Structures are given as C-alpha cells and as structure tokens.
Amino acid sequence: MSERSERVVSDEALRGAPSWTPNPTELSDLELLLSGAYAPLGGFLGRDDLRSVAATARLGDGRPWPLPVKLEVPAGMLDGIDVADRPPLLLTDPEGAPVARLDVTEVWPAREGWVGVAGPVTRTGDGGRAPFARLRVPTERVHGLITAPRVLGFFADRPLHRPQLAQLNHAARQLNAQLLVLVPVGAPGPDGLTAEALVRCVLAARDRMHDPIIVAVPLVDRGNEITDALVRAKVAAAYGVTHLLGTPGAMTGAGPRVLIPRELVYDSRDGQWRDRDEVPERFERIALTDEEIAGLLDDGLPLPEWHTPPAVARELTRSRPPRRQRGLVLFFTGFSGSGKSTVARGVADALLETGERSLTVLDGDVVRRELSAGLGFSKADRDLNIRRIGWVAAEVARHGGLAVACPIAPYASARATVRRMAVAAGADFVLVYVATPLEVCEQRDRKGLYARARAGQLTGMTGIDDPYEVPTDAELVLDTSAGTIEDAVGEVLAYLADEGWINPR
Known about the structure:
CATH architecture of the largest domain: 3-Layer(aba) Sandwich
Number of helices: 16
Number of domains: 3
Largest sheet: 7 strands, mixed
Oligomer: single chain
CATH class of the largest domain: Alpha Beta
Structural class: alpha/beta
CATH superfamily of the largest domain: HUPs
Helix content: 25-40%
Shape: flat
Distance between the termini: 59 Å
C-alpha cells in the first residue's frame, strides 16, 4: 500500500467513504473554512441557509453572511446513505490527496445530475499543499501574533509601490495599529502576474513596512463588487482586523471600521510622500497608473526608483519580463477551411526562420490525432479537446515559449477557458478570429467534410448542424477571402511586432 493510501485510510471512519474533488471555487471556500477565515461558519451551508443568504444576505438564524458557501457532487455518489448517521465524505485536491472530511448532514437535488451537500468540515491528510504554505495560516495563529489593540488590515491584490506603502505606513502611524497584509492567492494577480509572483512582490516590500504580518488567503473574485467587498471584510474580521483600509462600503454591522486611504503625492524636494496640499505643484509627482507600470514592463524599461522600491522592481521585472521574452498563446479560431491553419503555419514558419522565439504549433488535426485520440465531436468532447490544447499551450507559455494553436474552437466558453489558463500561467493571450465566410469555406472544402455534412453522411459539422459562436473578444480579425494568405500572415506578424512580442519585420 502506498504512503498516500495509508494516510487516507488511517481514519477508520474514512475507510470506504466516497471521495470527491471540489471545483476551484469550492476548494477555495474549503480552505477558508478550514483556516477559520469564514467564521462563524464551520462547514458547507445547507439548503435553508443557502436560500436565506440568496434572499436576505443572512443565514437562517439572522446573522449577516454575504455569499453562498456551497458544495455540489454528482447525483448517485451518496445514494443509500443515511444523513442521520452523519456519514463522512472525503474531499481531495486535484491530485487526489485528501484535504478534509465532511460529515454529511443534508443532501438535496441541486441541478440536473448534481446534489447539494451540507455539513461541517475538518482537516485530514496532507492534501491542499501550495506555494507559500507558511503564509497560509489559520486565524488562531495570526491572533497569537497580534500584539496591539488595533490592527490595520489591507488586501494587497497588486504589488506595493511607494505610494501604497506610504499610505499604509501613514494610516498605521495615525492609528498606532499593527499592520496585517492579506494577499489574495485564489486567482492570478493583476497584469499577468501569477498568484505566486504577487506574493513575492509583496514580500519584496516587507522591509518598507513596520513589522507587518503577511497572510496568504485563497480568495477568488465572485464577479460582484459588493459581494467581494463584503467577503473581504468578513475574512479580515476573522483574522482580527479592527480597521480595514481602502474598501469603502465593505462592511455592514459589526466588523472592521473602513478607512479610505489618503491621497499622497511624491515631494521631489526630499523624496517623501505627503498630502497633496503640503507639496507645491511644481515639486509634486503623482503615482504612476497601472497602465503606465505595465507599459514600462512590457517594453523592458526600468521602473523609476522614486515610485517603486528596487526590490519590488526586480521582482516585477523577473515575474513580468518584456513581451519579447514573455510567454504567449497565439490562438486561431474559425470554420474548417477558413485558412486558420495555413495562416498559423505561415506565422510559425516566419518565426522559425528568425529564431527569435521558442515555438510550439498545436494544429487542430494533429492534436486530434496525438493528444485527443478517441474524442468525438459532441460539445463535451469539443470542450475537452480545447481544454487539452489550452493546458499544453499554457505550459509552453509558462516557460517563455510561444504556443500557436489553430483548432476550430467553436464555443466562446472554451476559448475563455484557454485565455484564463494562459493568464494563470503568467503568459499573454492573443485571439485571432479567421472570419472567412462559411460559403467560401464550403467552396474550398479541401477535406470534403462540408459535402459529407450536406449529404447527411456527417453530423456535428460546425456551421452546418453545429453552431459557431463568433468571438467578441478577438484581438485580431482576418478574412482570407479578402486577400492572400501572405497578406494575412503579414497582418499577424505586424500585430505581434507592434504590440512588442516579436521584433519588427
């Protein structure tokens, strides 16, 4: 028996228990539950609490709570169990390592093929490992590090430059408070930074703050600004924060007092950051915008020392190299016969000739043969094929390579998944929509697929009996019926050069 297997069955109650790997959002909620950051919750909510939260933003007992903390598993997994016995369900990480046990107290139909599950969770096994585990600490441990009656909390969801550091230190001095910096690591950071790179950038600024406590929390954005602010306030309160900086409107009822950071400007006379009314206009410099910082990094230019501490600048430069050195996923989509593979191959050939980029081509037909053999053309199989392409492309780009992919990719959700994979890998993503009209693609019909589909000999043909969702987020749109392939290749290369990913032709 393997070492991992021994750990799984070391708890007799878990021997033979069903196991399930939650989705990324559920895993984030699970870690927050286990760490105490979701206090007073101790597990996934039941049906009545979920209904109450959805209707009133309160739990069934009336306590405020901003979001549904729910878990769903496939229907049939828990058939035959008696919730009166509180049977255990083993929750694992994506690698199958055990993370927690859930003592099931309620099961109900959630959506087709799925059931909701409620119950308290307790940590078990050694799953859920992640970089910077030393910073992913339970709330009780943080409480033991707090030595001041006031705790100033701040969510560092982007690197800390001198303006933010000055605001933090100014507020901490005014309050005579201990500083607690919470770094969200449940999703990629801003401007193409990975979550790990964001943590490194924050740690690089540690010596610019007065004795801070730095904690990594697996928060994910829910897509609702108010909900996200309320969740952050709840998590901050659980860690002992009494004053929260920079999230107005984030708290209702008891909890951290919200402070709005004061606007500070750089005083070029002595290099200090002060209130705007204390600095004559001719001596002031305002903070760089995120776009200006990203532009300097994209072009490989240094960040000015008056704005960014050298240690932070070094980490940012390492984590976000210039575009000519940064990984890129160049993703072509369009109908069969649109010319996307021919254009992609022409772009790849041109780049191989210059040798300026490490290159991998993921052609749709080749991937179907080598990576996705056995998959059909149902929506589920198409999505899985695109996910496989996206995963490989993101791994190529993670290490600074340029991945060129050219599947049909008819569904917007699958293309969005590939974009997210690339961003999560710290790479860039460019979507090229080859918008050659369907009638032109049918006329070409090099593989005879359209003729077979029209004759009823082939089903699931994109554009005939299966839909193609036209991209609304493409960085570049081409039509190979309006010019030559060489023109289209040149347009792509010109775009890549103009945006800085390759050298000008």
